[in-house]
Amino acid sequence: MTRLHTALVAIVIVICGLGVRALWDGPVAKYAGDALYTALIYALLVLLWPRIRPWTAGIAAAALSWMIEFAQLASIPRWLQPLLGSTFNPPDLLWYAVGAAMTAVAHAAYTRRG
């Protein structure tokens, strides 16, 4: 996957995240946002390391998302809260894993196709 393709995927993920927030409210938007947040982290990892294997990127993206979530148990600086959140929510951990797994499956299918 080229860096250009990966950058385009990252842009599409951001657009999807903004679209979900604009169209829905409540748990659908929140948990879809969690999955997309991890998908964006995944895309950024692939952007940095284009040869990373899909499952390695998936595990790393989920781990980074979980680290950020667990950091919310401590005090996140106020200026970072819009990006990283401020309240620990255990169901978020599941949706981060879902986002990482779905993105890894899509990436693996794309690389097998090519």
TrEMBL record:
Residue ranges crossing the lipid bilayer per the database entry: 7-24, 30-48, 55-73, 93-110
Pfam entry (one): DUF2809
Assigned keywords, A-Z: Membrane, Transmembrane, Transmembrane helix
InterPro entries (alphabetical): DUF2809 (IPR021257)
Protein name per Swiss-Prot or TrEMBL: DUF2809 domain-containing protein
Species classification: Bacteria, Bacillati, Actinomycetota, Actinomycetes, Streptosporangiales
